[in-house]
Amino acid sequence: MSSMEEIIKWCEEVAFDLNFSHAKKWKAQDKTRVLVGYLPIYIPREVIHAANGLAVGIMGAGDRKQIIKGDAYYQSYICHLPRGIIEMALDTNLNEFDGFLFPAICDCVRNLSGMFKLSKKGRFQRYFDYPQNFDPKIGGVFYMEEIQKVLDDVYKINGVTVTIDKLNKSIALFNKNRELIEKIYSIRQEFPWRLSAVDTYHILRAGLCITVEEHNEILEKVVKLIQVEQGEPMDNIRVIVSGSFCEQPPIGMLKSIEMAGCYIVDDDFMLGSRWIIGDVADNTHDPIKAIMEAYMDKSTFASCIYDVGNPKGKRLVKQARERNADGVIFCAASFCDPALLDRPEMQKECDAAGLPHINFQFHENTGQFKVIKEQAGTFSDSIKLWA
Ligand code: SF4
Fold first, then answer.
1. φ and ψ at 330, to 5 degrees?
2. Which of 13, 87, 112, 288 is 20 to 30 A distant from 73 in Cα terms?
3. Which domain holds residue 297?
4. Are residues 120 and 250 both part of a single domain?
5. Residues 276 and 153 placed together within one structural domain of the fold
6. CA-closest residue to ligand 1 atom 8
7. Which residue's alpha carbon is nearest to atom 3 within ligand 1?
8. How do residues 303-354 score in pLDDT, each as one tens digit?
9. Which atom of ligand 1 has the smallest separation from the CA of 80?
């Protein structure tokens, strides 16, 4: 893979392969390798990597799977993501996974962890709780204990001992990964026409199903390719898309927003890949503590975090200013409680800062984008004419 077209095509195939064939092939090469599926938003993938595992992001079935059993497991008034994932679990899609982590983001995901347990999917099904207390001596200690439980789960399967050295090496690899992703966002901030938001999405999402070493190689190539001028700048506005941190928006919707005259210069899709802002210390005698400290001090903002001291609305406005964005598109999954409950406060901050915004909701399998395209197009025109 050397051209951008080849990279994007490969990434798209891997990112949307609901059978995770690439990850399963990786596992088949060594008996001590384990596959750990995790749901949005974030888990410290470094610890799985150090234990000879691959943490695979399960971001939902999108519009690529017919949901039959999933609808029987959940009431109609919840988001779509858990139905698609339980459907995948009850079919054969997740069969070779060794375990699953369910980050504590909402009741739907918590209930899904129980369904996996009852269905005996994988050898462990762990509800992974984040601390909501940011005192390292309280929340920090709790978080390190949570991480240790995951390491114990994996050890019971493959017997691989995680050393300080292995952990530091894994941390360095994921630091590199985030640095390269940030580099891509920085180049796109200045030259968004060089790589569309949809192509960026495919490249990042592929990274959730392959090893970090492979992903870093791909990202290095992409950074090199987009440093060269290509494409034509358009008379588009620049927007931040906020609220899609869990259930992922359909690709057709992202295309519609772009075609309606909006460059998406930042977003919260697959936020776990960019959760820690900056580096985790990668040369310490206590790497788990380093991971905890990074979580405490360097986490981005999202609706699953209690943020009284550092409100999300203000951070969103700051992000928009830093990205030189003209406006915000609030775009959350239908029935996504965390995103929709946060939205009014965030809108209030945008109003106070004079930052225009619109909002709509989606399902991961939405197929009709005409209304969204019209809304985004009107937003773009109104900013160009009157802002
Ligand atoms: S989309 Fe929202 S409500 Fe649904 S599982 Fe994710 S966080 Fe929970």
1. -85, 115
2. 13
3. 229-386
4. no
5. no
6. 106
7. 336
8. 988 877 889 999 999 999 999 999 999 999 999 999 999 999 999 999 999 9
9. 4
